[in-house]
């Protein structure tokens, strides 16, 4: 069995004015099924850019990405969207919630794309939101919730379709200590259940829970070590 995820010499360039900047500058990475990985590094080093590539939200400018043995480069946009919907749960740094939808409907959204019926969608979303301490905010819209509450809705949305890979960008950044601990316990459960977790974080307590810590600097992997 090969790695679940394999990146080879992955580069990401963005056009900027007349020229181009290379933000990821040759990333080689293998991730096995069931690993819990923390990605750390200074602001602007390319962590979110790398997570978006791992989550098949953006394509490398050069290099290869194999997921479960399949070359992602050869997938068209529909095939990438299917891969994301079936396999990936993504917690964005900016949460990306739908402003007009309640917490339950936001959290249930991936199940809508996956074709689940309404009762099942809402039951699963409600169960996760309750688990995340949001039982009293089920019918609130994002604008009626605090930053930490919105963050937990984003986490529920990422987990609602029981994805094989969970990618999270600073998931505990806006949370108080108690809620942050609950999220970490949830991650431990997911990891214990065989899910693969890749979490961008500045928090040492998140890195401590991960089996492996990857440090990024200036678009390259600076170190990759057992935690
Ligand atoms: N679409 C884009 N066009 C041009 N530059 C971009 C684009 N997206 C990201 N960048 C640049 O790439 C660099 C890395 O951004 P990225 O969001 O990956 O950093 P990060 O490591 O996640 O930082 P932070 O810890 O602040 O979230 C930044 O300098 C950013 O300005
Ligand atoms: Mg970022």
Describe this structure in words.
The structure is a single chain. With 227 residues, this protein is α/β, with parallel strands linked by helices. It has a single domain, classed as Rossmann fold (3-Layer(aba) Sandwich), CATH 3.40.50.300. The chain contains seven helices and ten strands. It has a six-stranded mixed β-sheet with strand order 6-7-8-3-9-10, with helices on both faces. The protein has a four-stranded antiparallel β-sheet with strand order 2-1-4-5, covered by helices on one side. Helix 6 (177-192) links the parallel strand 7 (165-169) and strand 8 (196-200). Helix 3 packs parallel to helix 5 (147-159). The radius of gyration is 17 Å and the shape is globular. Adenosine-5'-triphosphate binds next to strand 1, strand 2 and helix 1.
What is the CATH third-level topology name?
A: Rossmann fold
Low-confidence regions: none
Distance between the termini: 24 Å
Global morphology: globular
Q: Got a strand count?
A: 10
> What is the count of structural domains?
1
In round numbers, the mean pLDDT is 93
Spell out the CATH superfamily: P-loop containing nucleotide triphosphate hydrolases
Bound molecule types: adenosine-5'-triphosphate, magnesium ion
Q: Determine the fraction of residues in helical runs and give it as a percent range.
A: 25-40%
- So what's the CATH class? Alpha Beta
Order of helices and strands: EEEHEEHEHHHEHEHEE
Tell me the CATH architecture. Answer: 3-Layer(aba) Sandwich
